[in-house]
Amino acid sequence: MHAWPASEVPALPGKGRDLRIHDTATGGRITLDPGPVARIYVCGITPYDATHMGHAATYNAFDLVQRVWLDTKRQVHYVQNVTDVDDPLLERAVRDGQDWTELAERETALFREDMTALRMLPPKHYIGAVEAIPGIVPLVERLRDAGAAYELDGDVYFSVETDPHFGGVSNLDAEAMRLLSAERGGDPERPGKKNPLDPMLWMAAREGEPSWDGASLGPGRPGWHIECVAIALDHLGMGFDVQGGGSDLAFPHHEMGASHAQVLTGEYPFAQAYVHAGMVALDGEKMSKSKGNLVFVSKLRRDGVDPAAIRLALLSHHYRSDWEWTDQVLADAVERLGRWRAAVSRPDGLPAEALVEEVREALADDLDAPAALAAVDRWAERQNAEGGTDEGAPGLVSRAVDALLGVAL
Q1: How far is CA 130 from the centre of its chain?
Q2: Cis amide leading into 326 (omega within 30)
């Protein structure tokens, strides 16, 4: 599966700061110190309805991570998956009378278009669950043969009790985990499981649903969590720098994935930091496909909204905060974009070297994009009111806003 084209990231004078970021597992900020190549895995979409503002906010957060790393003169090895076979996708296809593969391909293509328009840097490896199945099957067999998985009516489950570190990502108690498991695709009430929290690794073939050769597992399809583990281990290995996604992935998805990988390899941890973006609401409720309360990037683009304004609307909220999308949020972003473009359109201006350092410091401090935007606002306000004599300043601001914030002025 191919990703989307990369926009050029301008080079800036000097060097950026190492990233201090909130780690869900420890509950505090840690300073990331990758090697020359920083490694990041971000969980991708299930392509049955893409791309709403909740998606866009999440991928914007991890785009900022990449940009901070690139500004430190590191390379970035970014991997993202596409869950192109899963219950919600199959259910939507049946509801709409569509072939599930055509639905997945269409929505994935739309997602690529939206990411391109928003200037999100693409992953180096963009991998679908279906194409990863040949690598998933041996991992499930290894877990089963090691006694870390068991069969139940033809399905294969992972035993969470085989990982001594289970629970260390989300830090939730057993009852909270059980409730979330039931809400987020698990089956804690299924009779015969060793532990209600045990997640499915391999689902035996169901009538009327797609299945693949599972070798000794029999025909079927993979569980959700093992999909990302197989892709991450194949392309990044253990101990990569950041595992990212929305806050609703901390449990069960990232918790279970970490346990799968740690039992498979005997190493710890799966990722150095678990970073989670907040949820976006609409009309007082979390924006979600199941509720249908969605604002789509593609719809805004069709209505003529500048993608740079959409991106500024996302950046105006800290990535870890839960916030609500409103018409005013977008109107404020459109107005801000106009002020910034007016400021950099002048032939000369106020010195901007200090501004670049201020933006760098804000982003290195747990991706504080609102503080970065406020710094540019102050420069733009003075620039529009007073002007200056530095011929290189407008160009430097324009390049910095593009390189560090992904906004093309």
Answers
A1: 20
A2: no
Q: What are phi and psi of 113, to 5 degrees?
A: -60, -45
Task: Tell me the backbone φ, ψ of residue 387, rounded to 5 degrees.
Answer: 75, -175
153 phi-psi bin (left φ>0, alpha ψ -120 to 50, beta other) = left
* Largest Cα–Cα separation, the chain: 76
Q: What is the CATH number of the domain that holds 320?
A: 1.20.120.640
Range list of H helices, 184-278: 224-235, 255-265
CA distances 52 to 103, 234, 295, 308, 380, Å, are: 16, 29, 5, 16, 30
End-to-end alpha-carbon separation of the chain, Å? 31
Round to whole Å and give the CA distance between 290 and 115: 22
Which residue range(s) make up the domain with 75? 20-277
237-288 per-position pLDDT tens digit? 999 999 999 999 999 999 999 999 999 999 999 999 999 999 999 888 777 7
Dist. CA 380–CA 374, nearest whole Å? 10
**Residues near 194 by Cβ (< 8 Å), separated by ≥ 6?**
150, 157, 159, 161
Same domain (yes/no): 214, 301: no
CATH number, domain containing residue 250? 3.40.50.620
Total count of domains within the chain: 2
Residues 205, 69 within the same domain: yes
* pLDDT tens profile 201-222: 999 999 999 999 999 999 999 9
What residues in the chain have per-residue pLDDT under 70?
A: 289-290
